[in-house]
Amino acid sequence: DDAGFKPLSEAAGVLPEITYNRITALEELGKVSWTWSTTFWMLIALLMVAIRDLGYMYRIRVLTDKKLTWRQAFDVIMLWEFASSITPSVVGGSGVALFILNRENIPMGKSTAVVMVTAMLDELFYILMVPLVLVVVGTESLFLAGNYIFMDLELNTAAIFWMGYGFLVLLTLIILLAVFIYPQGFRALLSAIFKLKFLKRWRNTALNTGDGIVLTSKELKGKNAFFWLKALGATFFSWTARFWVVNFMILAFTSNSLVDNMMIYAKQLVMWVIMLISPTPGGVGIAEVAFSEFLVDFMPVGIPVIVMGILWRFFSYYPYLFIGAFILPRWLRKTAKNKAERKLATARGSL
């Protein structure tokens, strides 16, 4: 019986015609009032990107005992960032970094040491910086409200953050003990663990990791305090500049107090853990959403937060895609030529 039903036009009157306009992020950004102050702070944000990369280049030169020239260091860092941008965050570009360094005539033992120490220094920065920043800003307004599904568990962002932070502390502690105190013992432990029947398929990978730890330990033995001071200083310099890109971007459109800026910095530390577990290449999608959710309270009035998120990625992500894709073919040709010349010189020397 359709007696109780009427056409929508009869039941609710004539619906108004709705027109949708498709507006891109760049169009939204074009509506923003651009002042000299905006230009100044955007240039400072761009300067932070340059400082970040210069710090990474200096660190790679320190860790390779200056076997790399500044030009080689630039190629290595850009290609490393390129690899990180096109692989899931949970994978990272470390495996590709080994290939890049070895291709630049850095022996495999030293290459392994450089990649492992780089990861360790990055994590040390994070582990040390989090408590220092939290002392200043506290945790009351730091985390997002609501629960999220993480590893089949319903957790709030505070729980996810502290789980990630705890994992980084544990991982760094294991690396420190394995590299500097018990390298041979750590390799023996891996060998014993991966003899178990259900782990045997990964035994070769585990043994290679153990060999890498031993090689790293040999490479780092005897390094003085000044070496570690330079490497750690460059790490803090680079990561601080990396995070302050966002602060200066926001300052380009609005004014925030020192406390506000420290809170923005602290929220980025939380965001970094969430991006670290992202399954997408370079954290694409996850990064923009996290940016919007965490920093919405500090966004300038009249500018959609998603526009700021995309603008941030134009500073911190997309340049490495273009630069890496541009220099990769030339770098492959150059390093192939250098490798062939080294082989020829070795062959002549053996005659």
What does this 3D model show about the protein?
The protein is mostly helical and 351 residues long. It contains 14 helices and two strands, in the order ααααααββαααααααα. Strand 1 and strand 2 (153-156) form a beta hairpin. It starts with 7 loop residues before the first helix and ends with a helix. Mean pLDDT is 80; it is low at 5-15.
Summary tags:
351 residues; mainly alpha; 14 helices; globular
Shape: globular
Query: Strand order across the biggest sheet?
Result: 1-2
Number of helices: 14
Tell me the structural class.
mainly alpha
Low-confidence stretches: 5-15
Helix content: over 70%
Radius of gyration: 25 Å
What's the count of strands? 2
Please report the distance between the alpha carbons of the first and last residues.
101 Å
In terms of DSSP E residues, the strand content is under 5%
Please state the average pLDDT score: 80
H-E order: HHHHHHEEHHHHHHHH
Oligomeric state = single chain
Mind summarizing the main beta sheet? 2 strands, antiparallel
Question: In terms of topology, how is this protein built?
Answer:
Elements: H1 8-12, H2 25-30, H3 36-63, H4 70-86, H5 94-103, H6 108-137, E1 147-150, E2 153-156, H7 157-180, H8 183-193, H9 203-220, H10 225-251, H11 258-276, H12 286-295, H13 305-316, H14 318-349
Antiparallel strand pairs: 1-2
Helix pairs in contact: 3-4, 3-10, 4-5, 4-14, 5-6, 6-7, 6-9, 6-11, 7-8, 7-9, 8-9, 10-11, 10-13, 11-12, 12-13
